[in-house]
Specification:
mainly alpha
C-alpha cells in the first residue's frame, strides 16, 4: 500500500497511473481528472485517464 497523503499532484502527469489501495487523503489532483475517474482508480485499480 502506498501512503500518498498530503501530496500535491496538480502539476503531475497521472495519465495511466493506478492508485489501487493507496492512502490519498488531503491530496490535490489536476483539474483535468474527474472525481469519478479517481474513485475508479482507487477502488478498482483502473488506470487514470484525463479529459481532453
Amino acid at each position: 500500500m502506498s501512503d500518498l497523503r498530503g501530496v500535491d499532484f496538480r502539476e503531475a502527469r497521472l495519465e495511466g497511473a493506478s492508485l489501487a489501495q493507496a492512502h490519498v487523503s488531503r491530496c490535490y489532483f489536476p483539474e483535468g481528472i474527474p472525481a469519478a475517474e479517481l474513485q475508479l482508480a482507487l477502488e478498482h485499480g483502473t488506470r487514470i485517464r484525463s479529459r481532453g
